[in-house]
Amino acid sequence: MVLCLEDAWFKYDEYVLKGASICVKEGELVILLGPMGSGKSTLLYALTNLIPLERGRVTIDGKEFREEDRRKVGIVFQDPEDQFFNATVFDEIAYSLRALGFDETTVKEKVEAIASELGIERLLNKNPFKLSYGQKKLVALASVMVYEPKYLLADEPTSNLDKFSYKKVMELITKKGALVATHEVEWIPLASKVYVIKDGKVQEIEDVIQALKENRLPVPIPTSWEILFETLGLERALELLRERAYKAIAIKTQTKPPKRPAGGLR
C-alpha cells in the first residue's frame, strides 16, 4: 500500500505547492523537513484531500483518492484544538469509532487502550479544551490513532511537549510509521526517508547537513565538525550526525538512544 501526492499545485494568495510530489508506504516513517511557512501543513492537507488542488492528484496504490479512502488516512493537526469538538476527552477519542459503527463495548475498550498507551487515562472525563498544550497534543494523536488508519500524517507532533509526552509520541509514531512534518532534526535518524520542502517542491535529502543549512534548520552537530565532511567523506560524517542526533534524543527523553531501523537515513 502506498499513498502518493503527484505534481500538486495549490495557492492561497500565492502558490504554496508548485508541482510537489511525495509517496509514503504503509508502516514507513518518512520525515518532511522545512522552516515555518514552507508548505509542510498544506502538503499534509493535500495528501488527505482536504484542499482542492489546482493541478495534480492524490492516489492510493495508483488509484485516485476516493471519499471512502478517508478512513485509511488520518491526520493530526499542528494545533490540536483544530480537531476538538466534544465535551470530554473520552468522547473526543471515541468520536471516529462511533462514526465507523463500532459498538459501545468495543469503543470503550479501544479508547481506554490508546489512552493507557499514551498515559492519558486520568484525562478521559476532562474537557479537552481545558488541558495543557502537551495534553491536548496527546489527545489529538489518540483520537486519530484509535481507529488505526493505514497512513498517519502528523504535523509537528512533538513540538512544545514535555519530556514524558515527547518520548511517548515519538515511540508510538515510530512504531506505527507515519509522514511527520517537522522542523525537529531529532527525527532524522529514525526515518527510512527524509525529504525537505522548498519553493513549493519536495525533494529527498541527499547531503543532509547542506540541506538543513539551506533551509535554515539547526544542524545537530557542532559547526566546528564541518571539516569532517571534507576529510572523512559523506557516509562517515552522516554516521557522526546520526550518533549526535541519537544522543540529543536520549537527553531530551531521558532514555536510552533508540535503535536505528534497518535502512537507516538516506
Describe the structure in your own words.
By secondary structure, this protein is an alpha/beta fold. It has a single domain, classed as 3-Layer(aba) Sandwich (Rossmann fold), CATH 3.40.50.300. Helices cover 35% and strands 22% of the residues. The chain has eight helices and ten strands. A six-stranded mixed sheet has the order 6-7-8-3-9-10, sandwiched between helices. Strands 2-1-4-5 form a four-stranded antiparallel sheet, with helices on one face. α5 links the parallel β7 (151-155) and β8. α2 packs across α3, α2 (89-99) packs parallel to α4 and α3 (104-118) packs across α4 (133-145). The two termini are 21 Å apart. The relative contact order is 0.16.
Q: How much helix is in the residues?
A: 25-40%
How many domains? The number is 1
Shape: globular
Identify low-pLDDT runs: 221-229, 255-266
Specify Rg, calculated over alpha carbons. 19 Å
Give the name of the CATH architecture: 3-Layer(aba) Sandwich
Question: What is the name of the CATH superfamily?
Answer: P-loop containing nucleotide triphosphate hydrolases
Give the amount of beta strand, in percent: 15-25%
CATH class label: Alpha Beta
- The total count of helices amounts to 8
Number of strands: 10
Average pLDDT number: 82
Classify the secondary structure makeup into a structural class: alpha/beta
> Can you summarize the main beta sheet?
6 strands, mixed
Element order, helices and strands? EEEHEEEHHHEHEEEHHH
Reported by name, the CATH topology is: Rossmann fold
Distance between the termini: 21 Å
Task: Strand order, main sheet: write it out.
Answer: 6-7-8-3-9-10
